[in-house]
Every structure is written in structure tokens, then in C-alpha cells.
């Protein structure tokens, strides 16, 4: 595995739309492993491929509960409820803001074995998935902030 360089707000790659992956192969698995390692090294709980300069629809998440999610082409198929809570982002250092997100979502994606998975998520996991999928569409959490929590 290898660490990849994090891209920061102001880098135009973070504003581009990522492309789907047709088939999850070894190259995709290496990317996901590198992303997980980079996420841990930077003490994040989620990372999207554009944040390491790759415009592909790949995200990884680990909330610290022992589960590592690696999602290819993630798509939210259902959502309900709303909760507003603080967020941060490895690409927007030292900035936090409160963002409204759905309380519950259903997400479909391909896992590392190219198998289709459907997952129901709530609370922080749902929030994190929404945040990372936003990255795949060139959206940063600061675009959705309703109230600044703290800066600096
Ligand atoms: Zn982020």
C-alpha cells in the first residue's frame, strides 16, 4: 500500500465530476487500499478518490468501529429524515460547519469483489456516505453549511 497526496480546497480537481468504474479490478483494489491507508494517516473517517486526485467514483469509510467500507459507484436509492450536525473534511483543513443530511439512507454500490451490495445506513454513517458521494460530484461540505461552528 502507499500513501497518496491529499488535494485541498482551491484545487480544481475537487470541483470535477468523477466517472463510474465499469468493473472492479486489481487496480481499483489498490486504489481503495491506498485510500484507506491515506485516510488513517490523516486521521479521517472517510475519503473519496478525487481527494487523492483520481476522478473515479470510489469512496472509503471507517468510523472507528472496526468496519471498513470500500464502495465503488455508490448511489443513494432511498433517504428519509433530516439531521443537522457538524462536519469537517480532510480537503478543507481546520474548518467545521453544520450541514443538514438525511437521517437514514439506502445506498447501492459495488464492493471490492465487484459484487453489488445494498446497505441501509443511519446517523453518522449515512452522513459520511452522503459527504463522500458529494465529493464524486464536485461538491464540498462548505457548499452546504447552514452555520459555521468554528474556524481556525
Ligand atoms: Zn470531505
What does this structure look like?
With 152 residues, this protein is α+β, with helices and mostly antiparallel strands. It has one domain: Peptide Deformylase, CATH 3.90.45.10. Helices cover 20% and strands 36% of the residues. It is built from two helices and eight strands. It has helices spanning 26-41, 123-136; strands spanning 46-48, 58-61, 69-80, 83-89, 92-101, 104-110, 116-122, 147-151. The strands form two sheets. It has a five-stranded antiparallel sheet with strand order 1-2-3-6-7. The model has no long low-confidence stretch (mean pLDDT 96). The structure holds zinc ion (ZN). Zinc ion binds at residues 89, 91, 131, 135.
Overall average residue pLDDT: 96
Tell me the overall shape.
globular
Beginning-to-end CA distance, first to last residue: 32 Å
Strand content: 35-45%
Number of helices: 2
Quaternary: single chain
What is the second-level CATH architecture? Alpha-Beta Complex
By CATH, the superfamily comes out as Peptide deformylase
What's the CATH C level?
Alpha Beta
